[in-house]
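tool=predict chain=A
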Amino acid sequence: MKLGRNEPCPCGSGKKYKRCCMSSTAKQHASMLDDIEQIAAMNPNLSIEELNIVAEQKMKALNDRPHPDFCGLSPTQMSNWLYAPFSEWKGGLIHTPDNLKTSPVMRYLALILDEATQNDGSFKATSKGNLPTKIVKQASELLPEFAVSELERHISISEYAGSNEDKFNALHYSRVLAKIAGIIYHRSGRYHVKKAAQKQYLAHGIQAFFIPMLEAATSQYNWGYLDRWEHDVDLRAIWLFMLWRLQNHGNTQQLIEEVITAFPDLLLKCPEDEYRSSSRLLSIMIESRFIKRFLEFWGFVSVVPGRYVDDLRALDEVEVQPLMKQVFQFDV
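tool=predict ok
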């Protein structure tokens, strides 16, 4: 049975539910309904149409008001970040930087395009449909040029180096993104670069594909692809909010807390078990899917793995790289 906002709060405080344990968002809506009821009582001659106009104005004012659960964003602003296309974001701009040398994803894409350019627009794939050993080797040799290289000690299990594409997650991720973005395609045992993409590359360089690759990564690529957890937790919709917060303070623990406050329903998709709480599972997914296999793959951050204390690993430490601030500028 749904608890009415004017009924006694079940916590036993003696206050009305709307004045006590009701969520902050629900309290705002309850307050708005009270205002409309008061207006209707004081103006009995108002028509339904006129009351609807009052309600719409009240709702707009409520949705345009900064909300503490959203770190000061209004519900209107948050809705825009969750659902609007790249070109229609408000309060956030994305720039294509002049220099992408510190971005693993874009450097790997350049290797793929260079190989195709040198071979009339295509090159032979392996029997498994992977990138050839030549490109894998070239990509592995780029590791010292990235911020992540300071922490990469065990090359055999590195995300940024490997003997073949299957053992080289960052390269595999980049190839998959290039295919999703419509830059390359696989046919008859070869990887081909689309003719339009070849022209763009010759005219504008690797910068021509920065936005298409980023859009593919945040809207089409399956973030659970490389881990295959059974839990259906899609973080893509909130990626811009998370990036904004991380760029603001660079604190993983604070980011997790802000996400849980702003999007508490995510915890419902992370059922606790004997090993982890719901919040711990969500934090692991944010670290893996958002921070390590998105932000770090792109060169936006570097990650210092958390240390073990009493057999429990602390959250990773994140260092925001200059590339992130060059690309993302927020005015909120």
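DSSP finds twelve helices and nine strands in the chain. The mean pLDDT is 87.
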